[in-house]
Amino acid sequence: MLLITGTVVIVLLILLFMIERYGRRRGEQLFAPTTITETGKTTKCPLCGSSLTDNKRVKSVLFPGKPDSMMEINGCPYCYPPNSEILRICPVCNKEVPWDGHVIARVFIKPDKKHVHVLGCTGCYKRKNP
Fold first, then answer.
1. CA atoms in the 13 A half-sphere facing the CB of 114
2. What is the pLDDT along the chain (130 residues), one digit of tens a residue?
3. Three-point CA angle 102, 103, 109, nearest 5°
4. Cβ 36 vs Cβ 52: under 8 Å
5. Model's pTM, two decimal places?
6. CA 69 to CA 57: how far, in whole Å?
7. Per-domain residue ranges for the chain?
8. Which CA distances in Å does 116 have to 33, 47, 51?
């Protein structure tokens, strides 16, 4: 009887680990609380999918240009600097972003709005030479 109970507990722990691991691979956090900003909209990190409040921002570097700008997105306070707790997943190739890598995006700035288009990570996006 004790052997069966122990086996059931081990199988349940393995299943829980696999469910948590699968959720993180897809850029989602299964046990993270969802936060809503004052405007009623949720903001999510493009790399790990964590919900961000008004006082938490995504770390990025903007390189101004005409007619559009380029941006390097490193991650939010939960996934940058990189750690083993939360995986940073590229939204284009769905692979893990390298520890020393980032996501490259094109930014279109108009007077009434901003639009960010993710091109890929340092592993999958290869910049074309002019």
1. 8
2. 777 787 877 877 776 666 655 554 444 444 443 344 445 556 788 888 888 877 788 888 888 887 788 889 888 888 888 888 888 888 888 888 888 888 999 988 888 888 888 899 888 887 654 4
3. 130
4. no
5. 0.61
6. 19
7. 2-121
8. 25, 14, 18
